[in-house]
């Protein structure tokens, strides 16, 4: 039996409001449908401006959904009250792109990681115990808890952000370009951490990225967004090796490949496509 999707987007439209005559409204998503199964990683790719971040924000209740529906575990979440949205943050979490701005610079790692637990009534001693387990899970040393974010590298800060997202045991994490600000070797280690955590906890990821190498590394399936519409959804290997849609092929050809022979081949292919 196919498990019920954890997350379902059903023909969602996101329209940013305008500002009278000064600024017209803008429709960023035009009826997008996709689903994420429990424990699955759905990569979301597309060029700049295609609507990837908007889609992730819609799932988090941060972008105006003007039509269609978003369901989490079968329940509509497109238009929740603030209170219901806060309650849902136990289940749906986010890791943003920039580890330099997403952590409060004035808080120690201990405070950053205990905060989401304390607000839900967990005792301080229990919260601090859980922080040690979280630091272990993201492979940071125990003494990291006493330090401030500025004392860590970009990759380590992203590990702190991941630990914070994990603190209440979510079933889905929206990852918005979470490795794009990191250098290549750090990217690979952080991606491996995402995979390791998924294997250990069964968490699902909606993984937004513009980078096909990243999406290939991390995803089970990939949805390709083009000008606010999903043009193709398929297994990650199919999308990254033999995509059906011409836009996906172009995206693939534009992707950076380090192998010069492959690069030359891609250049020739691109020329022949016009
Ligand atoms: N708050 C907003 N108000 C009006 N338009 C917006 C707003 N946020 C995004 N947009 C527009 O919606 C479209 C999609 O933006 P979005 O940031 O979702 O794309 P993206 O694929 O994530 O791009 P990037 O990879 O550059 O971050 C863009 O044309 C953008 O200008």
UniProtKB/TrEMBL annotation:
Pfam family, any one: ABC_tran
Entry keyword set: ATP-binding, Nucleotide-binding, Transport
Superkingdom, natural source: Bacteria
An annotated Gene Ontology molecular function: ATP binding
Residue ranges constituting the ABC transporter domain according to the UniProt record: 7-252
InterPro entries xrefs: AAA+_ATPase, ABC_transp_ATP-bind, ABC_transporter-like_ATP-bd, ABC_transporter-like_CS
Family: Belongs to the ABC transporter superfamily.
Protein name listed in UniProt: ATP-binding cassette domain-containing protein
Lineage: Bacteria, Bacillati, Actinomycetota, Actinomycetes, Streptosporangiales
